Amino acid sequence: MVLSAQSAIAQALTGGAVVVDCSELGKLALTGDEAAAALSAVVTNDVEALAIGEGLYAAVLTSKGGMLGDLRVLRAADELLLDTQRSALQAVFDVIRHGLLGHRAELHKRTLECGLLRLAGPQARELAGVGTLPDAEHATMPATVGGCAVLAVATDVGVDLLCAAADTAAVHMALVDAGALAAGEDALEQLRIERGRPRFGVDITAGVIPQEAGLNERAVSFTKGCYVGQETVARLHYKGRPNRHLRGLRLSGTAAAGTPVVLEDREVGTLTSVTDSPVFGPIGLALLRREAEPGMTVAVGDATATVVDLPF
Q: 3-state SS of 57-124?
């Protein structure tokens, strides 16, 4: 029997692995003996605590605590590697560059120089040949795929492979030859939404405070030194009550991203991401006002939805 493309992807995600070229993500590098200290002063998480081979997720904020972007930080032997959504790249670059003043550190652009392939599925590590990669998210190890040097990065859904841009096609071909199914970003969107992970520029935009987006646990350290926007983040965490929360929506039917979410004739947010999950059915993400609490029913266009905590 010949599977449809959607069925083949679903099968690969549950029993094999898909490979997606995510090289369009913005990529930067920091070098210098004060690189970690400089970066830690402008992001929400504790970069200075990272050992070689470790990484973390963090946000870059305005002085009032609103997000300008999010990023992953990986500590390699001689540099810090950063990646971020392309829509946030310039803002993240500008903040970091300004934060380097007075530090022995240099910022480098790597978007065009580096490729990034994302493997998702239970066989991701096996197909990439990185079975000894530590389980901790963002852990890294050097490896070779298709005769090309790569940096393998543990993710919540599999493995990312960073390589020289010129090697991207060869690494991709080697993964497909090993059994990975080539797919587009839609395949990853399903997993992202099921896990309740917001995407900057889609579910969260400039000005959202990390706690509103449910990012405190993953992206914020409350024990590290000072950083831009810390006062607002700390005050809201210890004494405040967010006006909005990122929530999941279990939909009764089809609804499009951008559709208003209505509670008792009052608009409380907008559906930002949606997918037809083979596990949960139609689901979506929305940043909702706090009165739309888990368990409540809301209207989303012609459909209704139950508000739920994340992940689904």
A: EEEEECCCCCEEEEEEEEECCCCEEEEECHHHHHHHHHHHHHHCCCCCCEEEECCCCEEEEEEECCCH
